[in-house]
Structure prediction request, 360 residues.
Amino acid sequence: MRALARAILGLAAAVTFIASGWTLSQSPFAAPYVERTEAQVKVAVEAALTRNMDMRTVEARLRAALAEGEADEAAAILALADRRGVAVMPFLRAEVEAAVEVAEGWSACLSCAVDPAECPDLTRVAACNLPLELTPVGDAKAVWRAVDAYLEDRAIDRVDLGLGVVGLGATAAILVSGGSSASVKGGATVLRVGRKVGALPPRLTDEVATLASDALRLDRAGEAMRTRKLALLVEPAAAARLSGVASDVGRLTDAMPLGDAFAVVRRAESADDLARLARVANATGDETRATLAVLGKARLVRLTTRLADMTILAAALLAALAGQVVSFAIWLLRRFLRPARGGQRGRPQPPSQSRREARR
Prediction:
């Protein structure tokens, strides 16, 4: 019976060793995380909100939004709390409603619509300026500013021009394709306006600037103006990468109100963050801004990935193999110590007092 048990244990150890070797040969730890599907992201976000969204957290986020002058964000958090049954104090609810009423005033909208730098806050940028900039007029203005700078021998804003060219190109594609490039157009506009008002994080600004500079061939500006062929200014490969970033922003504008999309872009520190937040937006829709405010960007971005199945399998096999190695080492140690213990047990022991009395 012991021989059979030992054979089974030995076979199990051999199988575990072979399976571990094969699994490790697949390099499971080279890319331990994989992207969650849209449905998995939605489930993960819902679970995180259930764990972390309570009255104290909601009130803290509302106060922070009001302190920063973000009335729209406060309203979004309040709506999210109402949908999930989280109670909010009446006086705080009244403060949010009053802030929203002030923010929706149109007294400063005219000058803001002409120049985003004149907007008193980012809420009005989204409400007053972006709707105009989303038309071809906004992109044409960007191109005209570059032409004017070229004619007057001033420095050309390559980022403004690059995003304007991408927007015009996407607009032309909309007319041809019936709307398939609308997200690129919207994303390029949000990036262009956001950069102008200083609302983009520094790293994202640098990435967009690099892509825009690579996408333009200003050495062909003279020929482009003579022939009126805007395409001569564009380097296709780099422009495609810039369009990819704009498309991620466009996915945000498609999933939620324009002002909310603008606010979410402000939280993205890199193009990779933008792509991940766009995936979250596909799953959570117009709740994305409030969810981002409640959970924080780092946690929300982490929810878009999970441990790969192969990585989990490799970790489990290594743990099993380690357990078997420890068990084998303990068995060897016991075999090594057993003769000494047997020798002590085999020595003749003097009879006890009770045995001597019994013999008498």
